[in-house]
Amino acid sequence: MSEKQLILVVDDDPDLVEAVSMKLEALEYRVAKAYDGEEAMEKIKEEKPDLIILDVMMPRKNGWEACDEIKNNDDLKDIIVVMLTAVADSVKTTSYTHQDGKTTLADDYIAKPIDLDKLMEIVQDHCE
Amino acid sequence: MNNSRKDSLKTSVKDVFFQPRVLVVDDEVRIQKACQRLLNEEGCDVEVAENGIKGLKMIEEKHFDIILLDLMMPGMSGIEVLTDVKAHHPDTVVIVITGYATLEHSIETMKKGAFDFLAKPFSPQELRIVISKAIEFIRTLQDIATEKSRMRVMINTLSNGVLTTDNQKRIALANPAFLKMIGCRQKSVIGHKVSEFIKDSRLLDMIDQAIHQPKDIFAEITDDITITFPEEKDDIIIGVRCIPFRDRLKRNLGSVTVFHDITALKKIDQLKSNFISMVAHEIKSPLNSILMQLNVVLDGLAGELTEKQKEILQKSSNRIKSLTALSTDLLDIGKIESGLINQEREELNLIELIKDQVEFYRDQASSKSIQLITKKTLKELWLMGNRTNIEEVLSNLISNAIRYSPNGGKITVWANKKNDCAVINVSDTGLGIPQKDLEHIFDKFFRVKDKTTRHINGTGLGLSIVKSIVEAHHGTIEVESEIDKGSCFSIYFPKLEYKI
Fold first, then answer.
1. Poorest-confidence range of B39-53, B274-288, B300-314, B417-431?
2. How many Å lie between the alpha carbon of A31 and the closest alpha carbon of chain B?
3. Which range of residues forms the domain containing residue B370?
4. Nearest CA to B71 among B119, B14, B6?
5. Does A91 contact B280 at a Cβ distance shorter than 8 Å?
6. What is the pLDDT of residues B449-481, one digit of tens each?
7. B295 neighbourhood in chain A, CB within 8 Å
8. In A, residues 67-86, which contact B (CB 8 Å cutoff)?
9. In chain B, which residue's Cα lies nearest the Cα of A114?
10. Does A32 contact chain B (CB < 8 Å)?
11. Which CATH number belongs to the domain containing residue A33 in this structure?
12. Are residues B426 and B350 both part of a single domain?
């Protein structure tokens, strides 16, 4: 079996990144970590991950912007983007739906609070 | 004629809070005298003129409520007098006395504006009848005038702004509160186009929409507009509700717009939503992190766990999950309450809404062996309300009914009309609510707690959300419940009719 895919986990909460990474590693994925949008963009360009788990609310470039940048870049647009959205983000706008996720060019989304097992299923579906 | 009958007529004239002033214009002294005597008895103030010229001169000098006018007089004819009176004193009621009560004559005088006619010779009773008819007519006109001025005083005293226009967008009424809100110092705006005084394009647009609303719909157009003043004065935010004003044939006669200054409310609302997003982010995120870390540990990714450790961690995990659910509901209630300040309302067909919601919950119900049905009562039942809110009410009531029916059963949802109210009913055959708890079920965070409900999840906010929505729609809720038999929630929405 070939080497498992590389997954980049991006969130400003280090505890969350750690928990997600441990789950991914348990499934034998390779994991890279970033803690804000700018750092995420650097890591993406350096390491060319196969999939990115991307938080929305982050300092230094939010998840929507980062996602747009990835999907509008021909070298990066094939990377699968899974957005993490908190209900808090939608307080001022409308409630977040799957369809809304698609319009941001992201490939998938999972709402916070994250169900880790569900997130793993999503990742596995995309990495098959 | 007997006395008691006369007395009753007199009092009826006295009831009218004016003493009717009557002028008799007739060249026949006999008729002058007879009318004067009889009408004095009736409580009228009577004067006489023996010809048209003199009559017109007296009318110029003071107002008469009623004129008894002979058609055939030497000099100026009665028809000429009638024409002159109607041209200059349209409020004066003219009763024509004629010797030739022919059809042509009557028609001609009526066309010229006569109120009625008396054919010579007439009996006292005939005169009385004609006069009391005229007095009744004057009284009605006065009532309308009084009602109009009462309304004007009322509208001018309101702290909400009111603007009405005709269907050409000319101002028919604008109260001082409205003029103040838009910063207009001019007093006489009636008859002018609204666009001369209103600069806000959204507001002009709303009035336009209301005036051109098609017959088959009736919606209130609602929006918040911000008015800025050139001076240092702070901006104000105004909640505007605009509706068409229609006649019985549903033709648009104009628009009615009500302005409510919600500047203070908006400020508080902003503070509240900032607070809510802060709470959401600062509380939910850490909780979420903890949950994930527990999940990792529970998975054994941080080392082997004993059964006991697993059990305890699982319990803490569950407690945190319910905390997260609570904060989500807090966000919801915050969102809904802030949305209730000023929002779009439209005519909704309750029957359709119920059908959709029942459809939506059917799978969930049948997975718990619950039969979820609608009772077919009416084809349509219209309600002036906010769509999202009313859907929220239905969805809360139905999902509650499902949750509190642990042993299957039947849930019936229907709408009907009762005492001019549109009523939504949701009845179930579930656990029922203990009598002592009934008065608390609409309190925030209240949940019926006993051994049968312990395992049912919830935060106790659903019914309080329902209540705030219902109250914002001027409705009321009733609950009937019997332990082990089930509950029935009925929500009464008053039919707010803006149409005449």
1. B274-288
2. 15
3. 346-494
4. B119
5. yes
6. 666 666 666 656 678 888 888 888 878 889 998
7. 19, 23, 116-117
8. 86
9. B288
10. no
11. 3.40.50.2300
12. yes
Number of domains in chain B: 4
Contact A23 B299 (CB under 8 A): yes
Distance from CA of A15 to the nearest CA of B (A): 6
In-domain check, residue A1:
no
Secondary structure element (H or E) that encloses residue A103, with its range: helix A98-103
Residue A88, chain B, CB below 8 Å: the answer is yes
A27 CB near a chain B CB, below 8 Å? no
Mean pLDDT of B400-428: 88
- Look at phi and psi of residue B73 and say left if phi exceeds 0, alpha if psi is from -120 to 50, else beta: beta
Phi-psi region of B261 (alpha: psi -120 to 50; beta: other; left: phi over 0): beta
Say if B295 falls within a structural domain.
yes
Query: Is B278's pLDDT higher than 90?
Result: no
Q: Report the candidate in B334, B339, B332 with the shortest Cα–Cα distance to residue B222.
A: B339
Check whether residue B49 and residue B85 sit in a common domain: yes
Distance CA B34, CA B36 (A): 5
CATH classification at residue B99: 3.40.50.2300
| Last residue within a domain, chosen from B296, B324, B339 | B339
What DSSP assignment string belongs to B369-384? TEEEEE----S--EEE
pLDDT, chain B, mean? 83
Q: Is B374 within 8 Å of B353 (Cβ atoms)?
A: no
Say yes or no: A114 contacts chain B, CB-CB below 8 A.
Answer: yes
Number of domains observed in the structure of chain A: 1
ipTM of the complex model: 0.74
Size of interface A-B (CB pairs under 8 A): 66
> Does residue B141 sit in the same domain as residue B17?
yes
Please give the Cα distance from B431 to B152 (Å, whole number).
55
Residue A95 pLDDT exceeds 50 = no
Tokens 């305890």 found at: B312
pLDDT tens-digit map of B23-67: 999 988 888 898 999 998 888 899 999 899 999 999 988 889 999
Share of chain B above pLDDT 70, in %: 87
| Nearest residue to A89 via CA among B340, B258, B284 | B284
Supply A102's token pair.
């698609």
Which helix (H) or strand (E) covers residue B432, if one does? none
A17 touches chain B (CB under 8 A): no
Q: Which of B277, B292, B321 sits opposite A88 (nearest CB)?
A: B277
Mutate to test the interface with B, among A20, A22, A29 (most CBs of B within 10 A): A22
Q: Of all residues in chain B, what percent carry a pLDDT higher than 90? A: 23
